[in-house]
Design a protein that fits this description.
Structural class: mainly alpha
CATH superfamily of one domain: Ribosomal protein S18
Shape: flat
Radius of gyration: 26 Å
Order of helices and strands: HHHH
Number of strands: 0
Number of helices: 4
CATH class of one domain: Few Secondary Structures
CATH architecture of one domain: Irregular
């Protein structure tokens, strides 16, 4: 095997003689945020796209999710209304979280209770067969 020789880094290079090429630079120096990390971007899941949306165009606007029960002024969520409850249960039988449905905290609790009651009296399935 040929012996490797360490050449001096050209002027303006960020790496020091003791630092490996793939090593991380100290915080605040060296590479821009996210460069060299798997996934890229400054934050996890950011993807390094400017504009924050898919494609980085900035044209995508996510509407603020509004609670369906608050807008329609529904106070009590009936456990017998299977058609309503099925909108908040995933295909596999899991209760969909409020970050996906946009339901407020109080209605999500009532909804969860109604779904569990409907499951107990066999109006809704606990899980689907796969």
């Amino acid at each position: 095997m040929p012996e490797e020789t360490h050449a001096k880094a050209p002027a303006g290079s960020e790496s020091s003689p003791g630092q490996q090429e793939g090593g991380s630079a100290p915080r605040g120096e060296g590479r821009p945020a996210g460069e060299g990390r798997p996934g890229g971007g400054g934050r996890p899941g950011g993807g390094g796209r400017p504009g924050g949306g898919p494609g980085g165009r900035g044209k995508f606007f996510r509407r603020k999710k509004v609670c369906k029960f608050c807008t329609e002024k529904i106070d009590a969520i009936p456990y017998r209304d299977v058609r309503l409850l099925q909108q908040f249960v995933a295909e596999r039988g899991k209760i969909v979280p409020r970050r996906l449905t946009g339901v407020c905290t109080t209605h999500q609790r009532r909804l969860t209770r109604a779904i569990k009651q409907a499951r107990n009296i066999a109006l809704l399935p606990f899980a689907t067969r796969h």
